[in-house]
């Protein structure tokens, strides 16, 4: 027996409705479980005297919390590998080349000529 397009579309709609209902039920169950988990965590926090700093939590807006990375120092500038005849230096790292490097390369010079010994 061959189904018509209308019948197939009707079946798809029925399945879509069932999927939507199952997703609503799953969300309700998740919210119920979440409430229990939150209550259990609150009891443990109170029992052990845990603070937000112990958990390394930082505020990101009303009611929003996230785990922050340990505080780090800003990266130190890379050591210079190249020096221009006028004393300008460049580490040779990522990003745009300094103008003096671009001009020297365009004039046919090589980076090796500017390496700091």
UniProtKB/TrEMBL annotation:
Q: Which portions of the chain have biased composition (kind: Low complexity)? A: 68-81
Q: Specify whether Zinc is a keyword of the entry.
A: no
This entry's Gene Ontology molecular function terms read:
DNA binding
Region of interest: Disordered = 59-95
Recorded coiled-coil stretches: 5-39
| Pfam families in the cross-refs | Histone_HNS (PF00816)
Query: Any idea which UniProt keywords this protein has?
Result: Coiled coil, Cytoplasm, DNA-binding
Question: Where in the cell is the protein located?
Answer: Cytoplasm, Nucleoid
Domain (DNA-binding protein H-NS-like C-terminal): residue spans on this chain? 72-116
| UniProt key word Transferase | no
GO CC, one annotated term: nucleoid
Tell me the protein family, please: Belongs to the histone-like protein H-NS family.
Q: What is this protein called?
A: H-NS histone family protein
Organism encoding this protein: Xenophilus arseniciresistens
């Amino acid at each position: 027996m061959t189904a018509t397009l209308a019948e197939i579309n009707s079946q798809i709609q029925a399945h879509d409705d069932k999927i939507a209902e199952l997703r609503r039920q799953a969300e309700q169950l998740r919210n119920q479980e979440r409430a229990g988990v939150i209550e259990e965590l609150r009891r443990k926090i109170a029992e052990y005297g845990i603070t937000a700093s112990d958990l390394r939590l930082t505020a990101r807006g009303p009611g929003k919390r996230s785990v922050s990375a340990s505080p780090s120092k800003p990266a130190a500038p890379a050591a210079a590998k190249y020096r221009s005849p006028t004393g300008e230096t460049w580490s040779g790292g990522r990003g745009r080349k300094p103008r003096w490097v671009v001009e020297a390369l365009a004039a046919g010079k090589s980076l090796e000529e500017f390496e700091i010994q």
